[in-house]
Design a protein that fits this description.
Blueprint: H1 15-44, H2 54-67, E1 70-71, H3 80-109, H4 119-142, E2 145-146, H5 149-168, H6 179-192, H7 194-228, H8 230-238, H9 243-255, H10 258-269, E3 274-275, E4 281-282, H11 296-299, H12 312-325, H13 328-331, H14 336-356, E5 358-359, E6 369-370, H15 373-404
Antiparallel strand pairs: 1-2, 3-4, 5-6
Protein name: DUF6350 family protein
Transmembrane segments: 23-45, 75-94, 115-141, 147-169, 210-233, 245-266, 278-301, 307-326, 338-361, 373-398
Organism: Brevibacterium senegalense
Length: 405
């Protein structure tokens, strides 16, 4: 009996094809999600007789806002929870591309596929370029996004952060570092010494713990503000025709800005304050009365200066210090190089987050709202760095005292 002829192996696993297919998955996931949200919004607003052609416009506007672009009509504050979701989708797509390229490389080494120069770079760049093209076209041409300097900076930061996490981070939680990360550490070790390579790894761990501590501090501050400002939030809702419906609707909208609210709480506790308008900034050390939009969470912002406001300045350094040297095994990896690299990372991360926590929320003085970028970056970074450096200094003193016994 004659044997069945073998079909030729499909040899279309070119890096460009891999990157394009993964980009298509990202585009479909993003596109279908925002279209579904836009359709739901159209049905909710059906009483306003909006034309059906507004659905793709709303979908594009949602992508533009999530990407960090400022919108026409005087709105420039990104819904950072959606931006965080977009960041996660980008990281997931680039990681899948990286894994597919790694599997492709195994086939190349076995001789099943022809080799391609710069295969990994080609595939990842293809995926990123196609996704960026989709986001720009959907957000700026279809949606109501505006091409502004702040929007460009935020968009580039979002893409750069997603690319770095996807390329240098592990494929899975608690997994091994990527080969690109290992190659970077090897290069640093060869040129600057093994101590600097170890310091980079240690700084990444310290930065994660300090970031987690900052989130906990900000969440605690936000909860305290909501609890103490409960009556003011009720007064803000009382101006609506249906306070219950307004509370539900505004509550859903406020959830889209939870990361922004956490950063604003941290900015206030660090002494930088919150910019309520072009002329009003509230902080633990200022008394400022200003009109804000009738949104419950904004009504909870303390506009008075408590006599114990200086105590808030101690919270972030203490939390950062505990996150740096709260355990013995954490102290073992600390040295001056780790502290310097951690300080640089804190400044970069704080500056990037501050750019996403500021923007216009309307006309008539509300063109500037959120975290004052320079002040927040300086004071929040200073508080965290003081905590990290202080913890390292105390660990040195403890080690010296132990050695003298």
């Amino acid at each position: 009996m004659p044997s069945t002829p073998a079909f030729p192996r499909i040899s279309s696993r070119h890096p460009v094809v891999i990157g394009a297919l993964e980009a298509l998955r990202v585009v479909l996931a993003l596109g279908l999600t925002v279209l579904l949200v836009a359709v739901v919004a159209w049905f909710i607003a059906i009483a306003q007789l909006q034309p059906l052609r507004m659905v793709p416009v709303w979908a594009g506007t949602l992508l533009a806002a999530s990407s960090g672009w400022e919108l026409s009509g005087g709105w420039g504050l990104p819904p950072t929870l959606l931006s965080l979701g977009l960041f996660a989708v980008l990281v997931s797509g680039l990681r899948r591309t990286r894994r597919a390229l790694a599997a492709n490389e195994v086939l190349v080494r076995s001789g099943s596929l022809p080799a391609t120069r710069y295969a990994a770079t080609t595939g990842l760049v293809t995926c990123l370029v196609l996704v960026v093209a989709f986001l720009v076209l959907a957000g700026l041409l279809v949606g109501a996004g505006r091409f502004t300097g702040l929007g460009v900076v935020r968009f580039v930061l979002l893409l750069a952060a997603a690319s770095l996490v996807a390329v240098l981070g592990p494929d899975r939680r608690r997994g091994a570092a990527s080969r690109w990360a290992m190659a970077l550490l090897d290069t640093v070790s060869d040129r600057a010494g093994a101590a600097w390579a170890d310091a980079i790894e240690g700084a990444v761990l310290v930065l994660r713990r300090v970031g987690a501590a900052a989130v906990i501090v900000a969440a605690a501050g936000l909860l305290v503000a909501l609890a103490t400002g409960w009556s003011a939030m009720g007064e803000a809702l009382s101006g609506y025709t249906d306070p219950t419906a307004a509370g539900l609707g505004l509550g859903a909208v406020q959830l889209l800005f939870v990361p922004t609210l956490l950063h604003l709480a941290l900015s206030w506790m660090a002494g930088a304050g919150i910019q309520l308008s072009t002329v009003a900034v509230v902080s633990p050390f200022t008394d400022q009365a200003a009109l804000v939009p009738a949104v419950p969470v904004l009504a909870a912002i303390p506009t008075g200066s408590p006599v114990w406001g200086w105590a808030f300045l101690l919270v972030l350094p203490l939390a950062a210090g505990v996150a740096t040297a709260g355990r013995r095994q954490w102290v073992d990896v600390l040295d001056w190089r780790t502290v310097v690299l951690t300080a640089g990372g804190i400044v970069c991360v704080t500056a990037g987050l501050s750019l996403f926590a500021t923007g216009a929320v309307g006309p008539a003085g509300l063109e500037a709202f959120g975290a004052p970028v320079l002040t927040t970056t300086g004071l929040v970074s200073a508080g965290a760095i003081v905590g990290v450096a202080g913890a390292w200094g105390l660990s040195l003193l403890a080690n010296r005292a132990a050695a003298d016994r």
